[in-house]
Please model this.
Amino acid sequence: MADTSSPSLSSSGRSSLPADDSFRSYISGGWADRPDGTPAPRIAAPYAAARRLRLSALHPGKRLIVPAGPARVRSNDTDHPYRAHSAFAHLTGWGADAVPDSVLVFEPVGDGHEATLYFRPAAGRDTTEFYANAAIGEFWTGPRPSLAHVAADLGLETADLSAFDAVLDAVDADTLLVRDADPALTDQVDGRRLLAAVDAETVEEEGDATLARDLSELRFVKDEWEVDELRAAVDATRRGFDEVIADLPNAIAAVRGERVVEGTFNRRARIDGNTVGYDTIAASGPHACYLHWTRNDGPVVPGDLILIDAGVELDSLYTADITRTLPVNGRFTDVQRRVYEAVLEAADAARAIVRPGIRFREIHAEAMRVIAAKTAEWGLLPGTAEESLGDGQWHRRYMIHGTSHHLGLDVHDCAKARRELYLEGVLEPGMVFTIEPGLYFQVDDTTVPEEYRGIGVRIEDNILVTADGCELLSGGIPRTADDVEAWMGSLA
Ligand code: GLY
Ligand code: MN
Ligand code: MN
Model:
């Protein structure tokens, strides 16, 4: 953000605009009045307000600055689709429709804070921005809401972004900032700290880092609205998988069939949600062994498996994160099924222990117990499963990644939380995370018999911790080998 005025007007060697007064006057007039009704608060508003109260209680006396962040350049004057910073979305309830460069400010008042949302409201049609600013002008990117509209919609005090300069002027030792949302604004705040003779390094390393940590930790337990959003994200993701399966003949026929799979899933994500929550992994055959294969430029070949790791991010910015591994021709071979069922057993064993009170890291340990047992049983390890689970860790060659991560606004949610609350943390009702064991036998791995080489399987589900156990949010997406085959048969 940084610059609280409008981004500069478009001017380049390839464009010209009439600049004379008579044109300005002509283009500014002749528009019908546009009523700007006051909407009812959106469903997310009271939940976001409750989150703001929890954050406020953690930082008495501190001014907190939470930027949405700017539009990010993709190339030259072309931006990526806009996405607000997740902490900003969490505290405002403003998702895909957030206005770029907005800033949420908590001003300390008494024992608590007053929160104000600064943003660039609708510009009048008598401004040159209206028609001449390709970055933000209404002629180019569509209308923005008014201050009153957003205040009612989100249940927040609002102010024009131009007034944010006063917040910058007030920056002091008790001002904390979310640093990674808006690099230019971070530079400005750091500059103000220097001017105010604040020990900027200490404030950054202690204050700002603590704020980032707290914002991550506030997101561990999802409220009921967030859980509903995650359910809806999983439902949309199921529709995407259905369409991918129905479209597999086109993927098989294409030279870059993985791109067909990616495109089919991503189309559903754009129709039902904001976009995908992360780049879709469409990994066919041996590509499935590359954990984050997003190049997706390979063929889809009958007889192989295809691993699809994909999630729809809704307009609220909550995302699902689901992996299914499918036999391209609809039937698992014996060895594919053997590997698949071992991974499924690991997933089910891990989920079976989930309930409030256990530690997060126990989920991974439980999955590893099965992965070690299976790889030992198949003769792949240079020792027993017990030895491998001890110092050997040989089984990790075939599953190098962790089994679970928290899920929410970010696909890897709560990432700045303390280890003692994340990996070592104790599960509570309302937590949502993935369980995603896998087995990956690289095509040139001479430690495994040839029949295993080139097989990669991951099964990833989204789990909600309940009062006495857990709920498999993605249980509606077929998981067992038999159910996967029936699913594919029903959509063929
Ligand atoms: N899709 C990335 C992950 O499963 O963590
Ligand atoms: Mn995941
Ligand atoms: Mn995933």
Q: What stands out?
A: Confidence is low (pLDDT under 50) at residues 1-10. The pocket of manganese (II) ion (ligand 2) is lined by residues 321, 405, 434, 436, 460 (CB under 6 Å). The two ends are 50 Å apart (CA to CA).
